[in-house]
Amino acid sequence: MYATERQQLIERMLADDGRVAVLDLAARFDVTTETVRRDLAALEDAGALRRVHGGAVSPERTSVAEPSVAERSQRHSAAKERIARRALAALPNGTGSVYLDAGTTTAALAAALVTRAETRGCEVVTHSMTIAHTLAGAPGIGLTAIGGRVRGLTAAAVGSDTVAAIGRLRPDVAFLGANGIASGAGLTTPDPDEAAVKRAIVAGARRVIVLVDADKFDAELLVSFADLSELDVVVSDREPGAGLARALREADVEVWIA
């Protein structure tokens, strides 16, 4: 296979998955890792990707890139709905307390909660204005909305008052979103204020369930807010790659595939 052909295939893989790994590419094309790195260097020079440790990502995936809620709601919507339905198995039976983090996948879970008879008597807490709107007035579901300064990009409350209010809570289970999950960095997000809120959720919850589509695998954003060892379950639409899968096993984290 010519270098041009390999590079075209690499671009297609990036378009599909958002990330490629040097070792995986070398095995797929039956070439050396040095050959793959030359291909990635050529593509980076052309502006088609950005090289990172162990591989490359799409050029728009930087450590501070953060699309709006409206933009994210259009991405992988079918996968997010499947993840939300699969995550329902982690809900307490009957009465119980649930914390819902801000995010489009947790918003899909909130929508599923409204129609689930078994959640009647459930007490939900959230700092997401979007999720609060979805659950407000839902029959049999108690709702507590945590206030604070609302970030327009995510429609979520942030700031010291928000963190302090969450720090006083001990929910039975927390459903958490993340912009990235990686073996070394754990869970990450671009914004420090969002990270502080998420860190408080993790610290207080008795059980932590992370909802992420496979596009978040091996992505590392600016701020880390939880180690893999602090998680109980990761729910996604595809199996993680070998390195992340091994790190999750070593951290005793269950992986549920929707």
Automatic annotation (TrEMBL):
Sum up the protein's function in the record's words. Answer: Repressor of the lactose catabolism operon. Galactose-6-phosphate is the inducer.
Pfam families hit by this protein: DeoRC, HTH_DeoR
What region holds the HTH deoR-type domain? 3-58
- State the residue spans of region: Disordered: 54-77
Family annotation (InterPro entries)? Carb_Metab_HTH_regulators, DeoR-like_C, DeoR_HTH, NagB/RpiA_transferase-like, Tscrpt_reg_HTH_DeoR_CS, WH-like_DNA-bd_sf, WH_DNA-bd_sf
What Gene Ontology terms describe what this protein does at the molecular function level? DNA binding; DNA-binding transcription factor activity
Keyword Flavoprotein in the entry? The reply is: no
Which PROSITE patterns does UniProt cross-reference here? HTH_DEOR_1, HTH_DEOR_2
| Entry keywords, A to Z | DNA-binding, Repressor, Transcription, Transcription regulation
Protein name as catalogued: Lactose phosphotransferase system repressor
